[in-house]
Automatic annotation (TrEMBL):
Keyword Zinc in annotation: yes
Cofactors (names): Zn(2+)
Coiled-coil intervals, chain numbering: none
Record-annotated Alcohol dehydrogenase-like C-terminal domain positions: 188-265
GO molecular function, one term: zinc ion binding
Source superkingdom: Bacteria
Pfam families according to UniProt: ADH_N (PF08240), ADH_zinc_N (PF00107)
Family: Belongs to the zinc-containing alcohol dehydrogenase family.
Organism: Garicola koreensis
Name assigned to this protein: Threonine dehydrogenase-like Zn-dependent dehydrogenase
Key words, A-Z: Metal-binding, Oxidoreductase, Zinc
InterPro entries documented for this protein: ADH-like_C, ADH-like_N, ADH_Zn_CS, GroES-like_sf, NAD(P)-bd_dom_sf
Amino acid sequence: MKAVTWQGPRNVSVETVPDPVLQQSNDAIIEVSSAAICGSDLHLYEVLGPFMTAGDIIGHESMGRVVEAGSESHLSTGDRVVVPFQIACGDCFYCRKGLQTQCETTQVTEQRSGSQLFGYSQLYGAVPGGQAEYLRVPHADYGPIKVGEELEDHRYLFLSDVLPTAWQAVAYTHCEAGDSVAVVGLGPIGQFAARIAKHLGMTVYAMDPVAERREMAARHGVHVFDSGDESVSAIREATSGRGPDAVIDAVGMEAHGDAQSALAKFAQRSVQFLPDKVGQPVMAKAGVDRLAALYTSIDLVRRGGTISLSGVYGGQASPLPMLTLFDKQIQVTMGQANVRNWVDGIIPLVEDHSDPLGIDDFVTHRMPLEKAPEAYSMFQKKEDGCIKVVLNP
């Protein structure tokens, strides 16, 4: 089969690799019909090279049809399914608590990480990903989400990651209708976090330096601003001088905008040139993130407010302004999205023909699998108005 493979920092290629096969009785094999490129994939593309091996199959947002079902998979050939990005058993202590990203059955204990993720480095199990013609799905008796036949792929595809991640980001703000929320970063997660907050009755402000991203969010009733101190001041002024009740950081470890982020970017890129045996412990113990988005969130949120982190962070030595966090009595919530915990509440909105979350106004580029290298480069460089790419094998 053809699959998108990691070959080095900022270097992916489409290669012919062996077809996946059933390994356990609760496995399933799906023929992938759509696979998206996620902002988190860019961390593999740019930062997490020490935890990657040349030839790794990447991608964790995929859907398709079952072509082979294990005897205990609870699936049948022909079922149309969306595959959550994390692999969870559904029956352990953490799964029963709705924390599928901490699944005890699939935890990557040798890396001291949570549950296995599709296509996401040794840190999360080095499981082959879904930007491919076929995908083996472990624990298929729990993970895959069966969907209907009427709607096109793009209406369901984002149940794999983007929609649950954005929904959790808003839920973790603990805000209600009438409250104010600011979103820092209007990439895929930020777009839907802003729309979901607006759908739930909140007043939503958002910041992003890319005009096309601001224009997309504005179409959905979001008050948009460029990045920078003037925008922080404008949002604070619009919220009675206090700042919003919550801020969602939808950017993460590769933020731009301050001296610390520039230094961290240099450090992140330097690690890529170290041998893996050296680079891995450096990243695991001394890695630093680019924190411009988080610093902005801390500055912007009102006293006693909440910062919800949905952007991925990976540094173990990132400096935080603890005095400010403590003095402002800021609550900080975070974590990978627990997909199965949220999808039942999201599916009715996905299937609503009025499209309340504007899913039809989200995908900016559809490309064949063979064009993945060009797609990654375009997405990383934010060229051609690229906000969300869907690959079709």
